[in-house]
Amino acid sequence: MKVFLPLALTLATASSYSLQLTGRTGRFASTRLMSTPTYSIPDQPARFAKAKVENNSRFLDIDSCYDPSYLSGKRVALTGANRGIGLSLAKELSAQGAKIVALVRKSSPELDALNPEEVITGIEATSDSACATLADKIKGGPVDVLINNAGYFYEPVEMISDSSLNFSEELKMIDICALGPLRVTSNLFQAGLIKEGCRVAMITSQGGSVSWRTTQNPSGGDYGHHMSKSAANMMGVLVSQEFRSKNIPVTILHPGFNKTEMTKKYEKIWEIEGAVDAAVGAKRVLHEVGLINMERTGKFINCEDGLEIPW
Ligand SMILES: NC(=O)c1ccc[n+]([C@@H]2O[C@H](COP(=O)([O-])OP(=O)(O)OC[C@H]3O[C@@H](n4cnc5c(N)ncnc54)[C@H](OP(=O)(O)O)[C@@H]3O)[C@@H](O)[C@H]2O)c1
Ligand SMILES: *[C@@H]1O[C@H](CO)[C@@H](O)[C@H](O)[C@H]1NC(C)=O
Ligand SMILES: *[C@@H]1O[C@H](CO)[C@@H](O)[C@H](O)[C@H]1NC(C)=O
Ligand SMILES: *[C@@H]1O[C@H](CO)[C@@H](O)[C@H](O)[C@H]1NC(C)=O
């Protein structure tokens, strides 16, 4: 059957429409039939400029809508809690009375200063055996929230043309960013530490969106990182499907552009692209974690504006 769509529809909207149409009778019928998402936009300076023109308070002033009350007393497992966005998340979790279960390779004085409920060290994301120790090392029982945040971004912008590809680094990024959260999540689940109602967040990146590459990488580059985050997105969707019947919602989050060591190489564009301090980024992420539920399971959300990112 041929379906004609109004020309005004964007490609992204059109593909979502055709999914709805085929989904109606097919065996791939989706629970998202009714919703046509308003997508976030790939051009980062334009996204930030638009938010300013619209005086978008969700984007420009997260405090105007952030309600952290859901965190009080909750056990929150968090990878990469020792520095960067993870440390900022830990600080905000601590400020809101959550019980932090930090899953790290090694702690840091800043993390220790927060007095986490548990600090589990030696959790090397690339190691099957290290991740398997989670079951024994975590003492306080199931967690209410799991935030898979640890990640790695190789410094040089990889290009074919200037011979800057680094294949071993590419595999390392895929191992840390895509397999790492799967190792952690599966071990926690097997150990009975993730149960019905637990919210799972996969921090990936807008860099994992294939359809945004034409805008964000007009000349290619950053092969390993973007491939790793794309694989992480696929992992997140598959986990969300496996956990659907168990009522464990999983959301895939782009944390927003944060001024951390990882993005220091983009320092020149921080201000025009609306990069924020990690403390603001943490609230944006925890706002979206607060919205995780079975209706939104499997979605890929931009924590900057709360909108979906196309795959
Ligand atoms: N910053 C941004 O603007 C931005 C944008 C999009 C997505 N993200 C994503 O957000 C997450 C946090 O980013 P960030 O900016 O906070 O990065 P960061 O400052 O570089 O911190 C990375 C964290 O991941 C941990 N980690 C790295 N390799 C690991 C490994 N092999 N095993 C276990 N843990 C490992 C680090 O622990 P160690 O101290 O042990 O190395 C550290 O805690 C990442 O997944 C990143 O891809 C960030
Ligand atoms: C923007 O919105 C905030 C409330 O969210 C309001 O206080 C402020 O006056 C608005 N600014 C402009 C320029 O409209
Ligand atoms: C790849 O990265 C590693 C670690 O940074 C470095 O030691 C190695 O020389 C790099 N290889 C290439 C081909 O750039
Ligand atoms: C954001 O990142 C920059 C660069 O790493 C760092 O100097 C700054 O302290 C960070 N901000 C917060 C609030 O952590």
Q: Can you give a write-up of this model?
A:
There is one protein chain. The chain is an alpha/beta fold and 311 residues long. It has helices at residues 11-25, 44-53, 57-60, 84-95, 109-112, 128-132, 134-137, 167-190, 213-216, 223-244, 278-290; strands at 75-79, 99-103, 118-120, 143-148, 194-203, 250-254, 300-302. Strands 3-2-1-4-5-6-7 form a 7-stranded parallel β-sheet, sandwiched between helices. Helix 4 packs across helix 11 (278-290) and helix 8 packs parallel to helix 10 (223-244). The protein is globular. Mean pLDDT is 89; it is low at 1-30. Bound molecules: NADP nicotinamide-adenine-dinucleotide phosphate and 2-acetamido-2-deoxy-beta-D-glucopyranose (3 copies). Residues 80, 82-86, 105-106, 124-126, 149-153, 176, 203, 205, 254-255, 257-258, 260-263 line the site of NADP nicotinamide-adenine-dinucleotide phosphate.
The whole-angstrom Rg is 19 Å
CATH architecture of the largest domain: 3-Layer(aba) Sandwich
Order of helices and strands: HHHEHEHEHHEHEHHEHE
Termini separation (Å)?
25 Å
pLDDT < 50 runs, ≥5 residues = 1-30
At CATH level 3, the topology of the largest domain is Rossmann fold
- The structure class reads alpha/beta
How much of the sequence lies in strands comes to: 5-15%
Proportion of helical residues:
25-40%
Mean pLDDT, to the nearest integer, reads: 89
Give the C-level CATH assignment of the largest domain.
Alpha Beta
Query: Count of DSSP E strands?
Result: 7
Biggest β-sheet description: 7 strands, parallel
Mind telling me the CATH superfamily name of the largest domain? NAD(P)-binding Rossmann-like Domain
